[in-house]
Amino acid sequence: MALPEPTPGLVISYAYLWADQARAGREEGAKDRPCVIILSVTQREGKTEVMVAPITHSQPKFKAEGVEISAATKARLGLDDQRSWICTTEINRFTWPGPDLRPVSRDRPDRFAYGLLPDAMKKQVIDQIKNRQRFLAVKRDVGRER
């Protein structure tokens, strides 16, 4: 199984745990979904910490809470044709690759990434997250064996 390099802008398949689910005591995401890697940092001990933002079909209440993915980008990545947004109000943090990384499909059990966002979209997502005064972060490694 060849894992992709955790590069910012890479869209992966991941069992995302929403912050409200974590507050309710859940430890596992309800479903696997595409997520965008927004940051990847290699720590001194050689482990790589990754932060991902979820992709959802739910339109954000405010424009500054998400970035819509164009139909052309969704088609290139092999995602469905429904409107989707990258949520910029919360993230998951985990040690790469972690137990929640998922294959993109049953037909491709060896493939974990859909592809890269265009640079301008990646920048827009990262800028929205950086400019937030507050966002929710769920650390997924807590209490888990590696």
Oligomer: single chain
CATH architecture: Roll
Task: List segments where confidence is low: pLDDT < 50 over at least 5 consecutive residues.
Answer: none
Question: What are the secondary-structure elements, in order, as H or E?
Answer: EHEEEHEEEHE
- Give the percentage of residues in beta strands: 25-35%
A few lines on this structure:
It is built from 3 helices and 8 strands. By secondary structure, it is of the alpha+beta class.
What would you say this structure looks like, in words?
With 146 residues, the chain is an alpha+beta fold. It has one domain (10-139): SH3 type barrels. 17% of the residues lie in helices and 32% in strands. It has 3 helices and 8 strands, in the order E-H-E-E-E-H-E-E-E-H-E. It has helices at residues 19-23, 71-77, 119-131, and strands at residues 10-14, 33-42, 48-56, 66-69, 84-87, 90-95, 113-116, 136-139. Strands 1, 2, 3, 4, 5, 6, 7 and 8 form an 8-stranded mixed beta sheet that branches. Strand 2 and strand 3 (48-56) form a beta hairpin. The longest helix has 13 residues, at 119-131. It is globular and about 35 Å long. The two termini are 17 Å apart. The relative contact order is 0.24. The model has no long low-confidence stretch (mean pLDDT 94).
List key phrases describing it.
alpha+beta; 8 strands; globular; eight-stranded mixed β-sheet
Topology, element by element:
Elements: E1 10-14, H1 19-23, E2 33-42, E3 48-56, E4 66-69, H2 71-77, E5 84-87, E6 90-95, E7 113-116, H3 119-131, E8 136-139
